[in-house]
Amino acid sequence: MEEGARSCLLQSRSSLEQDIRASYLMDHMISDGVLTGDEEDRIRSKPTRREQAVALLELLLRKDNQAYISFYNALVRESYGDLASLLHNSLPLVSPEAEKSFSDGGTRYVQAVLSEGGVPQRPVVFVSRPALMNRVREKLYRLQKEPGWVTVFGMAGSGKSVLAAEAVRDHALITECFPGGVHWLSIGQLDRSDLLVRIQSLCFRLEQQSQEKDPSSSLHRPPGSLEEAKERLRFLMLRRYPRSLLILDDIWDSSVLKAFDIQCRVLLTTRDRSLADCVSGPKSEVAVESGLEEGQALEILALYVNRKPQRLPEQARSIVRECKGSPLVVSLIGALLREFPDRWAYYLHTLQQKKFKRIRKSSSYDYDALDQAMAASIQVLSEEHRELYIDLTVLEKDVKVPAKVLSVLWDLEPEEVEDVLQDFVNKSLLFRDCHHRPYLYYLHDLQLDFLAEMNRSGLESLHTKVVRQYQQRYSKGPPTSGDEECLYWFRFLTYHMAKANLTQELYSLMFSLDWVRTKAQIMGPAHLINDYLEYSTILDKEVRGHFQEFLSLNGHQLEQRPFPDVVQLALSQPDSSEVYRQALLQAQERATRGGLYLDWVNKSSLKSLSRLVVQPHQGSIYSACFSHDGTKIASCGSSKTLRVFKSTSGEKLLEIQAHDDEVLCCAFSLDDHLLATCSSDRKVKVWCGSLPSDEHEEQVNHCQFTNTRRRLLLATCSNDKFMNTKLWNINKPSSQNTMFGHLEPVNHCCFSPDDAYLSTSSSDGTLKLWEVSSANEWKSIDVADMFPEQREQTEVMVKCSTWSAGGRTIICAARNAVFVFDVETAAMLLEIRTSRLSTVQYCHACPSSNLVAIALSHYAVELWDIETSKKMADCSGHLSWVHGVQFSPDGSLLLSCSDDQTVRVSVCVCICASAVCLSIICPICLHQLTLLAGVCVCVCQVRNGRTGAVMFQSENQESRIRCTAICSQTSAVGLGREDGTIQVLEVPSGTSLATLQGHTRTVLHCQFTPEGHTLITSSEDTTIRVWRWRTGECVVLEGHKEQVRCFSLLTTTPSSETHLLSWSFDGTIKVWDMSSGERLQDLVCHQGAVLACDVSPDGQLFATTSADKTAKVWSSASWECVRLLNGHQDCVRSCRFSWDGRRLATGDDNGEIRLWNVKDGTLLKICSRDNKDAMDSLHGGWVTDLHFSPDNTVLLSTGGYIKWWNVEKGEALQTFYPTGANLKRIHVSPDFSTFVTIDNIGILYILKKVE
Asked: Element (H or E) spanning 534, and its range?
């Protein structure tokens, strides 16, 4: 018995033992010849019903496939339908040799009955289809007690006739239901005279058989008319053969079927499902929709050419795929190959070219060629319906369409279309998917191939008709309902245009930003990218590149909901891009109607290195890898899912809920047929393959398949104490070998290019090399020795390793370093040290060059040439830790994955050519049209505020720059450094005007007073210093207990003296006299750190916000709290008064912004999106800065991105998505038309309102 059948029996054993009566079932099994009389006696000797059931099942488990099928059939016959359903999916396929005696019922009686009734013998080459056959038998058993109809319907060549004949080849069925016999009549396409002849022949045969049994009965003259023939047949079936079955094969016409409406038991085969509607009596039906499985089709071909299936040539599987599972086509090809066994390639080519007329072979089938069978089905349609059916030639294979699409194509009402489609379905010319509402319709591949061949010359005009009908129906714009019809047009309109050779219209559609916006919103960006790739030979290369780049780099944004403004996204494209040109025109037009759009003025200074950005998971991505053919990418992470998508477009191909915990690694096998995953749930899984047992006791960190075809093995490593590295043979249930040697968790394992060795990287500080054949340790390299100054303090964890292309060197990562070792000598050849503030998360060697990619925790990826020891590139783009990098198999692409939930694919040539180093830049300072920023952490730049062009760049400072300030009266800039020093430089000469020393820790904020003579600084050392910077005189303001991150100048009246307002993490606000250093006020404002403070325009009030989730409004006159503002659910990080002083805006770490009435403290509006975004925030992160427009109608906020809000409604007017994230501050021009900020990966944004 097949393993699947045996396993199913064992799983269902308890249910079977509890419910079945063995004595009822054994009668059927004895009739089938699978149970002997002695075996029955032994089972009946058991004292109880349950013990008999146990004994029967134990005996059944020792028998073969036939016994399983007989037991299943017995359950069906004895009305154990629920139990039979448990076994149905595991019904085995029975070989023809073993099936012959069994399927014939095991008795000569069955053979005699079927022979007398004219039932065709089994074809010489036959493969059982047990599931379908049992379904037909189940329906036939319903005819046991009363007359009725069983309809077996399906398209031409689906095997209906063979199935009907096989269904009645059963001893129990005949003896119990049809003891009067089984009578077969082949019908086909007949006129009235031919039908009369067929019925006369049947009547004569029945009377002759009756006379042989009862010599007293006499033969009658043949009936002279159809009416007379019908009455004669009724008499014979009701009187002489009262419990017999009449099988009508290949019925085409309802008028023919009515001639047999004589209150008897009928099984009919047809292509028209609806035929039985015209007759009376109970009806049931069996659809023959599914064709042969690949194994069954190969078995048929093997029997024809007298070979074993595994000995068939390589073209056999391709031929089977081209046959689309059709028993007719497989048999026709098999019969041809029996005579011409060397024509495998020829017949494969014939099938691929759809030359159906060449596929002919005389047989018992009415049509000796496939084209004849298909044509006959179409000819029975009315002329009007035939024309409509031909229109279906334009459909794509494996595509299901709703009736609404055809309503557009045919210009008919939907109800009329459904009636037409019902006719096609009834005649097996079309299939209907009833699992969807509304129904979806589709053609079998063979039907579509036949239509395409028949209408080859008219295909272009048929596709043109589709396009024109669509344009007529949707002249005012495409459908946006999102239903199946809408999806069809967005998916296939470009296909129809291309097939219709409507090149200009295809250009206009695909190069339209409106089309891009609507299709991306409904279907996502991946389908659009696929369109540009598919029609790349038709479309203009340059413009196609513009749209493809836009979608590839903004795809992760276009997946967000609510859907972003595509025009605003497109304004970030290069000025030379067609996408930008269209976006600017639309933005200008919308601006005249009150729309708000921002042009990124200085974007030309940047060039994206990514080719594709995808957001496949909601959560951190720990691993991503290319398939070996480079066309697919698999990714996994904290979402517990595994996703596979196209490497060109990001289109999802597969998504699996893979594990019960975080998925830490995924890997393709060499042939890409298998995918392995490992997880924190301690399991290793192989998808599309067998499942290794749970041998690891701790989380499994990494998995990898072998690199060569010599032997398929899977290596895994885990946090287990001793048995932490294993080799698996996928075809075995347990591990093949375990490597013993590491005493701490093993973080990574990697096969050498020739699979001779396996490297393992461990938290014990070592890199070990193992012989794969023996699982013995070959070499051990103590990487911890490379950190002698740190080894005593903390453990050295080796994160990962990778082999060079030739396998002569091995590269490993630990802490902030990467080491290259010679494999033979274990000598260190190269040491790469990265930033001291970062750790190396992963490294991977390029298979086609000397490059190695390094993933770092400070969001960057570095490329190094290990031959020349030079860094080739330092590229940014990710917004959080980068967990993995991998080159494509040909070395042309590099992918990276990160905690920021994205996978980025970059072109290696572009990365190395750019060699760009973009480092985090310190906060910027804006004065009029001059912009100041610290770049590359130790360099200061002054840029033009309109264009972003560099006007001045300082020399390297001795310490990192943390803050900057511009003097409004003199051409000078102030720089606050990490070492506590303040440097004042002249612009543009760079001459040092002053070096101010006094702070003992990092300077966090600096600001010149309006007259320019005084510079104020605050520091981590808890002090504020007021400098007369030209003379070096200093007043120290001491009193805060924690770092002072910021301060503000406070003037209560125009004539009053300016005081200094400072706030700190110590929860206090302090007011100072800057001249004397006297502390005027010391207010304990909050229970938590004070995070922001803002002074009202008239100086009468100031507001504070805190980590205690509250905001407060204070009086500058009484120094008392006048308003306590509660409601935020997280730290309140920013605040800003409106210019009229009537409103206060506050923003928190959850991304929520609240607008308050300053006069009475009431809440006016909450500015937030309905749902959290991918960063689990309402604003992509903390709300870090707020600004009102001069007319107080618009509010600007920064966080993960920049947003503009309508103050009255609390609704978002626009959103700008930066490349990076975590925007700290934004500087706004007085007229609220220019906005300048910088993101966490060092990109500067000068945004200008589109007018």
From this structure: helix 525-534
